[in-house]
Specification:
Helices cover about 50% and strands about 5% of the residues. With about 425 residues, it is mainly alpha-helical. It is globular. It starts with a strand and ends in a 28-residue tail after the last helix. The mean pLDDT is about 95. The structure holds s-citryldethia Coenzyme A.
Length: about 425
Protein backbone atom coordinates (compact mmCIF):
# COMPACT_ATOMS: atom_id res chain seq x y z
CA UNK A 1 0.00 0.00 0.00
CA UNK A 2 1.78 3.12 -1.21
CA UNK A 3 1.14 6.52 0.36
CA UNK A 4 -2.66 7.06 0.23
CA UNK A 5 -3.10 4.33 -2.39
CA UNK A 6 -3.85 0.61 -1.98
CA UNK A 7 -3.03 -1.79 -4.81
CA UNK A 8 -5.12 -4.88 -5.51
CA UNK A 9 -3.99 -7.51 -7.99
CA UNK A 10 -6.38 -10.33 -8.88
CA UNK A 11 -7.34 -12.29 -12.02
CA UNK A 12 -4.41 -10.67 -13.83
CA UNK A 13 -5.77 -7.18 -13.14
CA UNK A 14 -4.13 -4.54 -10.90
CA UNK A 15 -6.11 -1.61 -9.54
CA UNK A 16 -5.10 1.31 -7.35
CA UNK A 17 -7.62 2.41 -4.73
CA UNK A 18 -7.45 5.64 -2.69
CA UNK A 19 -6.79 5.33 1.06
CA UNK A 20 -8.70 7.89 3.12
CA UNK A 21 -7.99 9.05 6.67
CA UNK A 22 -10.47 10.25 9.27
CA UNK A 23 -9.58 12.55 12.14
CA UNK A 24 -8.70 9.53 14.35
CA UNK A 25 -9.02 5.78 13.92
CA UNK A 26 -8.19 3.33 11.11
CA UNK A 27 -7.74 4.58 7.54
CA UNK A 28 -10.12 3.16 4.93
CA UNK A 29 -9.54 1.76 1.46
CA UNK A 30 -12.11 3.38 -0.83
CA UNK A 31 -13.36 0.43 -2.91
CA UNK A 32 -16.35 2.17 -4.51
CA UNK A 33 -14.87 1.76 -8.01
CA UNK A 34 -13.57 -1.80 -7.44
CA UNK A 35 -16.44 -3.67 -9.12
CA UNK A 36 -16.52 -1.26 -12.07
CA UNK A 37 -12.75 -1.63 -12.60
CA UNK A 38 -12.29 -5.35 -11.83
CA UNK A 39 -15.69 -7.11 -11.84
CA UNK A 40 -14.82 -8.21 -8.27
CA UNK A 41 -16.88 -7.73 -5.10
CA UNK A 42 -15.36 -7.57 -1.63
CA UNK A 43 -16.72 -10.18 0.81
CA UNK A 44 -17.40 -9.24 4.45
CA UNK A 45 -20.53 -10.85 6.02
CA UNK A 46 -21.05 -9.28 9.44
CA UNK A 47 -19.04 -6.27 8.26
CA UNK A 48 -16.09 -7.02 10.54
CA UNK A 49 -13.73 -5.03 8.27
CA UNK A 50 -16.12 -2.62 6.58
CA UNK A 51 -16.74 1.08 7.16
CA UNK A 52 -20.26 1.76 5.87
CA UNK A 53 -20.21 5.56 6.04
CA UNK A 54 -18.45 8.72 7.15
CA UNK A 55 -19.62 9.88 10.58
CA UNK A 56 -18.62 12.62 13.01
CA UNK A 57 -20.88 11.57 15.88
CA UNK A 58 -19.25 8.74 17.87
CA UNK A 59 -15.76 7.27 17.90
CA UNK A 60 -14.85 3.93 19.51
CA UNK A 61 -11.32 2.60 20.04
CA UNK A 62 -12.05 -1.04 20.90
CA UNK A 63 -8.46 -1.89 21.85
CA UNK A 64 -8.15 1.03 24.25
CA UNK A 65 -11.75 0.90 25.53
CA UNK A 66 -12.38 4.48 24.40
CA UNK A 67 -15.85 5.89 23.55
CA UNK A 68 -16.18 9.55 22.45
CA UNK A 69 -19.37 11.42 21.59
CA UNK A 70 -18.46 14.36 19.35
CA UNK A 71 -14.98 14.07 20.95
CA UNK A 72 -16.10 13.99 24.60
CA UNK A 73 -15.20 10.81 26.59
CA UNK A 74 -18.21 8.83 27.82
CA UNK A 75 -16.82 8.80 31.39
CA UNK A 76 -16.80 12.62 31.54
CA UNK A 77 -20.28 12.88 30.01
CA UNK A 78 -21.64 10.26 32.44
CA UNK A 79 -20.14 12.16 35.39
CA UNK A 80 -20.84 15.78 34.43
CA UNK A 81 -23.58 15.89 31.79
CA UNK A 82 -27.28 15.04 31.47
CA UNK A 83 -29.18 12.99 28.90
CA UNK A 84 -30.81 16.16 27.52
CA UNK A 85 -27.38 17.81 27.14
CA UNK A 86 -25.86 14.69 25.53
CA UNK A 87 -28.88 14.52 23.20
CA UNK A 88 -28.25 18.13 22.13
CA UNK A 89 -24.54 17.30 21.65
CA UNK A 90 -25.25 14.23 19.50
CA UNK A 91 -27.76 16.11 17.35
CA UNK A 92 -25.88 19.41 16.96
CA UNK A 93 -22.19 18.53 17.37
CA UNK A 94 -21.40 20.93 20.22
CA UNK A 95 -22.27 21.17 23.92
CA UNK A 96 -25.10 23.71 24.40
CA UNK A 97 -24.77 26.92 26.43
CA UNK A 98 -27.36 27.50 29.14
CA UNK A 99 -29.90 29.19 26.85
CA UNK A 100 -29.51 26.54 24.14
CA UNK A 101 -29.96 23.73 26.68
CA UNK A 102 -33.00 25.43 28.24
CA UNK A 103 -34.58 25.96 24.80
CA UNK A 104 -33.87 22.38 23.69
CA UNK A 105 -35.24 20.93 26.94
CA UNK A 106 -38.35 23.12 26.67
CA UNK A 107 -38.88 22.04 23.04
CA UNK A 108 -38.56 18.35 23.91
CA UNK A 109 -40.91 18.71 26.88
CA UNK A 110 -43.52 20.27 24.57
CA UNK A 111 -43.67 17.04 22.54
CA UNK A 112 -43.92 14.46 25.32
CA UNK A 113 -47.65 13.78 24.82
CA UNK A 114 -48.81 11.28 22.17
CA UNK A 115 -51.95 11.55 20.03
CA UNK A 116 -54.88 10.33 22.13
CA UNK A 117 -55.78 7.83 19.40
CA UNK A 118 -52.38 6.17 19.88
CA UNK A 119 -53.44 4.81 23.25
CA UNK A 120 -56.03 2.64 21.52
CA UNK A 121 -53.19 0.79 19.73
CA UNK A 122 -52.19 -0.74 23.04
CA UNK A 123 -55.66 -2.23 23.55
CA UNK A 124 -55.07 -4.51 20.57
CA UNK A 125 -52.19 -6.30 22.31
CA UNK A 126 -52.52 -9.06 24.90
CA UNK A 127 -51.63 -7.79 28.36
CA UNK A 128 -48.69 -10.21 28.44
CA UNK A 129 -47.28 -9.01 25.11
CA UNK A 130 -43.53 -8.40 25.29
CA UNK A 131 -43.12 -4.60 25.58
CA UNK A 132 -40.60 -4.66 22.70
CA UNK A 133 -43.32 -6.10 20.45
CA UNK A 134 -45.50 -3.17 21.48
CA UNK A 135 -42.67 -0.68 20.84
CA UNK A 136 -42.11 -2.03 17.31
CA UNK A 137 -45.80 -1.58 16.53
CA UNK A 138 -46.53 1.71 18.23
CA UNK A 139 -43.37 3.56 17.08
CA UNK A 140 -43.95 2.41 13.50
CA UNK A 141 -47.56 3.61 13.80
CA UNK A 142 -46.38 7.15 14.66
CA UNK A 143 -45.92 7.69 10.90
CA UNK A 144 -49.73 7.41 10.63
CA UNK A 145 -50.09 10.50 12.81
CA UNK A 146 -47.46 12.90 11.51
CA UNK A 147 -47.96 13.35 7.77
CA UNK A 148 -47.06 17.00 8.36
CA UNK A 149 -43.44 16.12 9.06
CA UNK A 150 -42.38 13.17 6.92
CA UNK A 151 -40.83 15.10 4.02
CA UNK A 152 -37.28 14.06 4.88
CA UNK A 153 -35.83 16.46 2.32
CA UNK A 154 -37.12 19.35 4.43
CA UNK A 155 -34.71 20.17 7.31
CA UNK A 156 -37.60 21.56 9.34
CA UNK A 157 -39.54 18.30 8.94
CA UNK A 158 -36.44 16.37 9.98
CA UNK A 159 -36.04 18.61 13.03
CA UNK A 160 -39.64 18.30 14.25
CA UNK A 161 -39.65 14.52 13.63
CA UNK A 162 -36.38 14.19 15.56
CA UNK A 163 -37.76 16.14 18.51
CA UNK A 164 -41.05 14.19 18.45
CA UNK A 165 -39.22 10.85 18.51
CA UNK A 166 -36.87 11.80 21.37
CA UNK A 167 -39.75 13.32 23.35
CA UNK A 168 -42.32 10.59 22.85
CA UNK A 169 -40.22 7.48 23.42
CA UNK A 170 -40.43 7.77 27.25
CA UNK A 171 -44.21 8.21 27.07
CA UNK A 172 -44.63 5.24 24.70
CA UNK A 173 -42.26 3.09 26.78
CA UNK A 174 -44.04 3.95 30.05
CA UNK A 175 -47.41 3.19 28.41
CA UNK A 176 -46.10 -0.23 27.31
CA UNK A 177 -45.18 -0.99 30.90
CA UNK A 178 -48.46 0.32 32.32
CA UNK A 179 -50.43 -1.76 29.83
CA UNK A 180 -48.54 -4.90 30.88
CA UNK A 181 -49.36 -4.40 34.57
CA UNK A 182 -52.97 -3.35 33.99
CA UNK A 183 -52.54 0.16 35.37
CA UNK A 184 -53.87 3.35 33.71
CA UNK A 185 -51.57 5.45 31.52
CA UNK A 186 -50.26 8.64 33.14
CA UNK A 187 -49.87 11.82 31.10
CA UNK A 188 -46.47 13.54 31.17
CA UNK A 189 -45.90 16.30 33.74
CA UNK A 190 -43.56 18.75 32.05
CA UNK A 191 -42.29 20.47 35.15
CA UNK A 192 -40.35 17.25 35.76
CA UNK A 193 -37.03 16.48 34.05
CA UNK A 194 -37.00 14.25 30.96
CA UNK A 195 -35.97 11.28 33.11
CA UNK A 196 -38.10 12.21 36.13
CA UNK A 197 -41.11 12.46 33.81
CA UNK A 198 -40.39 8.96 32.54
CA UNK A 199 -40.02 7.51 36.04
CA UNK A 200 -43.32 9.08 37.13
CA UNK A 201 -45.20 7.87 34.02
CA UNK A 202 -43.80 4.37 34.66
CA UNK A 203 -44.12 3.97 38.41
CA UNK A 204 -46.68 6.65 39.37
CA UNK A 205 -50.41 5.99 39.82
CA UNK A 206 -53.35 8.43 39.59
CA UNK A 207 -54.29 7.59 43.18
CA UNK A 208 -51.35 9.45 44.74
CA UNK A 209 -48.50 11.85 44.09
CA UNK A 210 -45.27 10.26 42.83
CA UNK A 211 -42.04 11.49 44.37
CA UNK A 212 -39.00 11.18 42.08
CA UNK A 213 -36.02 9.88 44.11
CA UNK A 214 -33.11 12.17 43.03
CA UNK A 215 -30.47 9.41 43.21
CA UNK A 216 -32.62 7.10 41.07
CA UNK A 217 -33.35 9.94 38.61
CA UNK A 218 -29.60 10.63 38.36
CA UNK A 219 -28.76 6.93 37.90
CA UNK A 220 -31.49 6.48 35.24
CA UNK A 221 -30.36 9.62 33.43
CA UNK A 222 -26.79 8.30 33.44
CA UNK A 223 -27.96 4.92 32.09
CA UNK A 224 -29.67 6.79 29.25
CA UNK A 225 -26.39 8.63 28.54
CA UNK A 226 -24.48 5.32 28.44
CA UNK A 227 -26.91 3.91 25.86
CA UNK A 228 -27.37 7.02 23.70
CA UNK A 229 -25.20 6.14 20.71
CA UNK A 230 -22.52 3.68 19.70
CA UNK A 231 -21.17 4.19 16.17
CA UNK A 232 -22.46 1.84 13.44
CA UNK A 233 -23.87 -0.97 15.63
CA UNK A 234 -26.45 -3.35 14.17
CA UNK A 235 -29.56 -1.31 15.03
CA UNK A 236 -28.01 2.00 13.93
CA UNK A 237 -26.95 0.39 10.66
CA UNK A 238 -30.53 -0.85 10.30
CA UNK A 239 -31.87 2.67 10.77
CA UNK A 240 -29.38 4.00 8.21
CA UNK A 241 -30.24 1.31 5.66
CA UNK A 242 -33.98 1.85 6.13
CA UNK A 243 -33.48 5.62 5.89
CA UNK A 244 -31.35 5.29 2.74
CA UNK A 245 -34.49 4.35 0.77
CA UNK A 246 -36.21 7.56 1.88
CA UNK A 247 -38.49 5.84 4.40
CA UNK A 248 -39.96 8.20 7.00
CA UNK A 249 -38.07 8.53 10.31
CA UNK A 250 -40.76 6.81 12.39
CA UNK A 251 -40.60 3.69 10.18
CA UNK A 252 -36.79 3.79 10.36
CA UNK A 253 -36.78 3.92 14.17
CA UNK A 254 -39.24 1.00 14.30
CA UNK A 255 -36.75 -0.98 12.18
CA UNK A 256 -33.99 -0.05 14.63
CA UNK A 257 -36.12 -1.20 17.58
CA UNK A 258 -36.75 -4.54 15.87
CA UNK A 259 -33.02 -5.10 15.34
CA UNK A 260 -32.07 -3.98 18.85
CA UNK A 261 -34.43 -6.62 20.30
CA UNK A 262 -32.07 -9.48 19.39
CA UNK A 263 -30.23 -11.12 22.35
CA UNK A 264 -26.88 -10.62 20.60
CA UNK A 265 -27.52 -6.86 20.66
CA UNK A 266 -29.85 -4.83 22.86
CA UNK A 267 -31.68 -7.91 24.12
CA UNK A 268 -28.51 -8.92 25.98
CA UNK A 269 -29.36 -6.89 29.10
CA UNK A 270 -32.54 -8.93 29.62
CA UNK A 271 -30.64 -12.14 28.75
CA UNK A 272 -27.75 -11.24 31.08
CA UNK A 273 -29.99 -10.84 34.13
CA UNK A 274 -31.89 -14.02 33.27
CA UNK A 275 -28.51 -15.76 33.01
CA UNK A 276 -27.45 -14.44 36.45
CA UNK A 277 -30.76 -15.66 37.89
CA UNK A 278 -30.15 -19.09 36.31
CA UNK A 279 -26.63 -19.23 37.74
CA UNK A 280 -27.95 -18.11 41.12
CA UNK A 281 -25.03 -18.44 43.53
CA UNK A 282 -21.27 -18.03 42.92
CA UNK A 283 -20.58 -21.74 43.48
CA UNK A 284 -22.45 -22.48 40.22
CA UNK A 285 -20.23 -20.11 38.17
CA UNK A 286 -17.52 -22.64 37.13
CA UNK A 287 -20.18 -24.85 35.51
CA UNK A 288 -21.49 -21.95 33.40
CA UNK A 289 -17.98 -20.79 32.49
CA UNK A 290 -17.31 -24.29 31.14
CA UNK A 291 -20.59 -24.22 29.21
CA UNK A 292 -19.66 -20.84 27.68
CA UNK A 293 -16.34 -22.33 26.50
CA UNK A 294 -17.91 -25.50 25.08
CA UNK A 295 -18.24 -25.16 21.29
CA UNK A 296 -21.02 -27.77 21.32
CA UNK A 297 -23.04 -25.74 23.80
CA UNK A 298 -24.88 -22.70 22.38
CA UNK A 299 -24.72 -21.04 25.82
CA UNK A 300 -22.78 -17.77 25.90
CA UNK A 301 -22.02 -15.47 28.81
CA UNK A 302 -24.61 -12.79 28.09
CA UNK A 303 -23.24 -9.30 28.74
CA UNK A 304 -19.74 -10.45 27.76
CA UNK A 305 -17.87 -9.85 24.53
CA UNK A 306 -18.18 -7.20 21.89
CA UNK A 307 -17.52 -6.84 18.17
CA UNK A 308 -15.46 -3.71 18.74
CA UNK A 309 -14.31 -3.62 22.37
CA UNK A 310 -11.37 -5.98 22.90
CA UNK A 311 -10.86 -4.23 26.22
CA UNK A 312 -13.21 -3.28 29.04
CA UNK A 313 -16.35 -1.51 27.73
CA UNK A 314 -16.02 1.95 29.37
CA UNK A 315 -19.79 1.97 29.83
CA UNK A 316 -19.61 -1.20 31.95
CA UNK A 317 -17.20 0.57 34.31
CA UNK A 318 -19.68 3.39 34.92
CA UNK A 319 -22.55 0.92 35.13
CA UNK A 320 -20.81 -1.08 37.87
CA UNK A 321 -20.25 2.10 39.91
CA UNK A 322 -23.90 3.03 39.42
CA UNK A 323 -25.05 -0.28 40.92
CA UNK A 324 -23.49 0.72 44.24
CA UNK A 325 -25.08 4.20 44.16
CA UNK A 326 -28.57 2.84 43.46
CA UNK A 327 -28.23 0.11 46.09
CA UNK A 328 -27.29 2.64 48.77
CA UNK A 329 -29.97 5.15 47.67
CA UNK A 330 -32.70 2.50 47.70
CA UNK A 331 -31.17 0.63 50.66
CA UNK A 332 -31.42 -2.60 48.68
CA UNK A 333 -28.91 -5.33 48.07
CA UNK A 334 -29.25 -7.95 45.37
CA UNK A 335 -27.10 -11.09 45.81
CA UNK A 336 -26.99 -11.31 42.01
CA UNK A 337 -24.59 -8.34 42.09
CA UNK A 338 -22.11 -10.40 44.09
CA UNK A 339 -22.64 -13.25 41.62
CA UNK A 340 -22.00 -10.83 38.73
CA UNK A 341 -18.82 -9.45 40.33
CA UNK A 342 -17.54 -12.98 41.00
CA UNK A 343 -18.46 -14.10 37.46
CA UNK A 344 -16.51 -11.17 36.02
CA UNK A 345 -13.52 -11.93 38.25
CA UNK A 346 -13.45 -15.64 37.29
CA UNK A 347 -14.07 -15.02 33.57
CA UNK A 348 -11.37 -12.35 33.31
CA UNK A 349 -8.81 -14.75 34.81
CA UNK A 350 -9.78 -17.61 32.48
CA UNK A 351 -7.43 -18.17 29.48
CA UNK A 352 -10.41 -18.64 27.12
CA UNK A 353 -11.83 -15.19 27.87
CA UNK A 354 -8.39 -13.60 28.00
CA UNK A 355 -7.37 -15.04 24.64
CA UNK A 356 -10.67 -14.07 22.98
CA UNK A 357 -10.61 -10.66 24.73
CA UNK A 358 -14.09 -11.10 26.15
CA UNK A 359 -14.87 -8.39 28.71
CA UNK A 360 -18.15 -7.29 30.31
CA UNK A 361 -20.07 -4.95 28.01
CA UNK A 362 -22.72 -2.31 28.66
CA UNK A 363 -25.37 -4.99 29.20
CA UNK A 364 -23.68 -6.95 31.97
CA UNK A 365 -24.50 -4.78 34.98
CA UNK A 366 -27.40 -2.68 33.65
CA UNK A 367 -30.03 -5.30 34.43
CA UNK A 368 -29.09 -5.39 38.12
CA UNK A 369 -29.64 -1.63 38.41
CA UNK A 370 -32.88 -1.64 36.41
CA UNK A 371 -34.20 -4.53 38.48
CA UNK A 372 -33.35 -2.67 41.72
CA UNK A 373 -35.21 0.41 40.44
CA UNK A 374 -38.27 -1.79 39.82
CA UNK A 375 -38.29 -2.58 36.09
CA UNK A 376 -39.20 -6.14 35.01
CA UNK A 377 -36.57 -7.76 32.76
CA UNK A 378 -38.94 -7.47 29.78
CA UNK A 379 -38.56 -3.68 30.00
CA UNK A 380 -34.75 -3.62 29.89
CA UNK A 381 -34.42 -3.52 26.08
CA UNK A 382 -37.25 -0.98 25.92
CA UNK A 383 -35.09 1.32 28.05
CA UNK A 384 -32.15 0.68 25.74
CA UNK A 385 -34.36 1.65 22.75
CA UNK A 386 -35.62 4.75 24.58
CA UNK A 387 -32.05 5.99 25.11
CA UNK A 388 -30.70 4.87 21.73
CA UNK A 389 -33.41 6.78 19.86
CA UNK A 390 -31.36 9.99 20.03
CA UNK A 391 -28.36 8.15 18.55
CA UNK A 392 -30.47 6.64 15.80
CA UNK A 393 -32.02 10.05 15.06
CA UNK A 394 -28.61 11.80 15.02
CA UNK A 395 -27.14 9.16 12.69
CA UNK A 396 -30.24 9.27 10.46
CA UNK A 397 -30.02 13.06 10.18
CA UNK A 398 -26.30 12.85 9.40
CA UNK A 399 -27.00 10.36 6.60
CA UNK A 400 -30.01 12.15 5.09
CA UNK A 401 -28.27 15.52 5.05
CA UNK A 402 -25.22 14.06 3.24
CA UNK A 403 -25.53 15.24 -0.39
CA UNK A 404 -23.68 12.10 -1.52
CA UNK A 405 -26.19 9.80 0.21
CA UNK A 406 -27.28 6.78 -1.87
CA UNK A 407 -29.61 3.86 -1.21
CA UNK A 408 -27.76 1.01 0.52
CA UNK A 409 -27.71 -2.06 -1.70
CA UNK A 410 -25.00 -4.69 -0.96
CA UNK A 411 -24.23 -7.56 -3.40
CA UNK A 412 -23.43 -11.24 -2.62
CA UNK A 413 -21.31 -14.28 -3.36
CA UNK A 414 -23.83 -16.49 -5.19
CA UNK A 415 -23.58 -20.19 -4.24
CA UNK A 416 -26.88 -21.44 -5.67
CA UNK A 417 -27.60 -23.55 -8.83
CA UNK A 418 -26.53 -22.33 -12.27
CA UNK A 419 -29.34 -21.70 -14.80
CA UNK A 420 -31.54 -24.75 -15.54
CA UNK A 421 -34.85 -25.37 -17.38
CA UNK A 422 -38.26 -25.79 -15.74
CA UNK A 423 -39.42 -29.42 -15.33
CA UNK A 424 -43.18 -30.02 -15.76
CA UNK A 425 -44.87 -31.41 -12.66
CA UNK A 426 -45.74 -34.77 -14.29
CA UNK A 427 -42.04 -35.34 -15.05
CA UNK A 428 -40.67 -34.79 -11.50
C1 LIG B 1 -24.46 -4.55 22.42
O1 LIG B 1 -22.16 -3.16 18.29
C2 LIG B 1 -22.41 -2.48 19.35
O2 LIG B 1 -21.83 -1.43 19.59
C3 LIG B 1 -23.49 -3.07 20.25
C4 LIG B 1 -23.69 -2.32 21.58
C5 LIG B 1 -24.30 -0.95 21.35
O3 LIG B 1 -24.16 -0.10 22.26
O4 LIG B 1 -25.01 -0.79 20.33
O5 LIG B 1 -22.46 -2.19 22.26
C6 LIG B 1 -24.68 -3.08 22.46
O6 LIG B 1 -25.07 -5.22 21.61
C7 LIG B 1 -23.41 -5.17 23.33
C8 LIG B 1 -23.25 -6.71 23.09
C9 LIG B 1 -24.39 -7.43 23.82
N1 LIG B 1 -24.41 -8.85 23.44
C10 LIG B 1 -24.06 -9.81 24.36
O7 LIG B 1 -23.59 -9.57 25.48
C11 LIG B 1 -24.31 -11.23 23.87
C12 LIG B 1 -23.10 -12.11 24.21
N2 LIG B 1 -21.98 -11.65 23.33
C13 LIG B 1 -21.77 -12.33 22.10
O8 LIG B 1 -22.89 -12.91 21.50
C14 LIG B 1 -20.75 -11.67 21.20
O9 LIG B 1 -19.68 -11.32 21.99
C15 LIG B 1 -21.17 -10.45 20.38
C16 LIG B 1 -22.36 -10.73 19.54
C17 LIG B 1 -21.43 -9.29 21.26
C18 LIG B 1 -19.99 -10.11 19.47
O10 LIG B 1 -19.87 -11.16 18.58
P1 LIG B 1 -18.75 -11.16 17.42
O11 LIG B 1 -17.99 -9.89 17.39
O12 LIG B 1 -19.40 -11.60 16.15
O13 LIG B 1 -17.72 -12.21 17.92
P2 LIG B 1 -17.90 -13.76 17.74
O14 LIG B 1 -19.32 -14.18 17.98
O15 LIG B 1 -17.28 -14.14 16.43
O16 LIG B 1 -17.02 -14.31 18.95
C19 LIG B 1 -15.61 -14.39 18.84
C20 LIG B 1 -15.26 -15.62 19.65
C21 LIG B 1 -16.09 -16.84 19.27
O17 LIG B 1 -15.30 -17.99 19.55
P3 LIG B 1 -14.55 -18.71 18.28
O18 LIG B 1 -15.65 -19.07 17.28
O19 LIG B 1 -13.58 -17.69 17.75
O20 LIG B 1 -13.91 -19.93 18.89
O21 LIG B 1 -15.56 -15.39 21.04
C22 LIG B 1 -16.58 -16.29 21.47
C23 LIG B 1 -17.24 -16.85 20.23
O22 LIG B 1 -17.75 -18.16 20.48
N3 LIG B 1 -17.51 -15.49 22.25
C24 LIG B 1 -18.05 -15.86 23.42
C25 LIG B 1 -18.85 -14.77 23.82
N4 LIG B 1 -18.79 -13.81 22.89
C26 LIG B 1 -17.97 -14.26 21.92
N5 LIG B 1 -17.92 -16.99 24.14
C27 LIG B 1 -18.62 -17.03 25.31
N6 LIG B 1 -19.41 -16.03 25.79
C28 LIG B 1 -19.55 -14.88 25.05
N7 LIG B 1 -20.32 -13.90 25.49
Amino acid sequence: MSENQATLSADGKTVEMPVRSGTIGPDVVDIRKLYGQTGLFTYDPGFTSTASCDSAITYIDGDEGVLLHRGYPIGQLAEHSSFMEVSYLLLNGELPNQDELAEFTRTISRHTMVHEQLSTFYRGFRRDAHPMAIMCGVVGALSAFYHDSTDIADPQHRKISSHRLIAKMPTIAAMAYKYSVGQPFLYPKNELSYTGNFLRMTFGVPAEEYEVVPEVERAMDRIFILHADHEQNASTSTVRLAGSSGANPFACMAAGIACLWGPAHGGANEAALNMLKEIGTPDKIPHYIERAKDKNDPFRLMGFGHRVYKNYDPRATVMQQTVREVFSALKVNDPLFETALRLEEIALSDPYFIEKKLFPNVDFYSGIILSAIGFPTTMFTVLFALARTVGWVAQWNEMISDPGQKIGRPRQLYTGPTQRDYIPLNQR
